[in-house]
Amino acid sequence: MTNLSTSSSDKSHRSAPTKVKKGPGDRFAPQAAPRVSFNIIDENALGQRVDNYLQRVMKGVPKSRIYRALRKGEVRVNKKRVKPEFKLSIGDSVRIPPIRLEESAAPSAPGSKFVGLLESRILYEDDLLLIVNKPTGVAVHGGSGVQLGLIEALRSMRPQCGFLELVHRIDKDTSGCLMVAKKRAVLLDLHRQLREGGMQKCYTALLDGRWSGREHLIEAPLKKNVLASGERHVRVAVDGKASKTLFHVEKRYKDATLVSAKPVTGRTHQIRVHAQFVGHAILGDQRYGLAESNQRVKKAGLKRLFLHAHSLAFTLPDSENIFRIEAPLDADLQQVLLNLEKAQ
To answer: Which domains does the chain have, with CATH numbers?
Structure first.
């Protein structure tokens, strides 16, 4: 096993960024050039649907405008009209129309303070992969009222990377390990591991009340609903998708239990809803927790959701080594545990 666990301040293992000349159409600036450009497809887009490819390279352009460009033949592959589901091959020439973005629609650049924060929280980086200890309160991508997400910030910070895509997602209020692929082949392989259970994810959570026993496998189907506000709400339902979470009790406090949680499946809000389902909601959870319990634990200094993506274990293409990445628990959460210990 290769152990790549590190603190956020240790970056000796990271490769120096390679200066790569950005190709035409790789990023659309707030004022896109008013002329047609042509992108030649390489291995990073092999097998990708053309609509998904356009959404990646035409940052900030609304999906509706991209689909209209496809319908009208403004976008062509090898000089031919194509449908949105057309899959790209190496060497294909994609015609990118001269769509000018309105300044208000253009993706904003991250501020220097935010860039510094993210740089300090990068756990691992090489030519294939970037793993960051995502801060709490930061959405993984823009949309739904969020102008700038973590992935947009990373793309701005790494303009030499022609490909940067999220391998998976974690909730806005959750901190910890988040993987970003730099190669499409790596992205597809890691997605395969997620589907087949080859990747191990472990979270640290502080639950409401004292949970007896040591090991708990929760199997409860989950159903996702989208509220009128656009927010996602998940509940246990017989017609939901099969879901499993393994909880291991690490330590008990007076009115709380520290656990490690390993999601066997990867449903939205899975750990949070399974914890609520067994009567031990995650403390600090404003959506699924109890208001009185959240208010009580504020006295110990908890001002956020106590859920942290602690570690990842996976393999990379053409390697038999198992990589394990760990994200240290944030200082504010460590302090909450110290305060609970003192109150015992």
So the answer is: 37-96 (3.10.290.10), 109-188 (3.30.2350.10), 198-342 (3.30.2350.10)
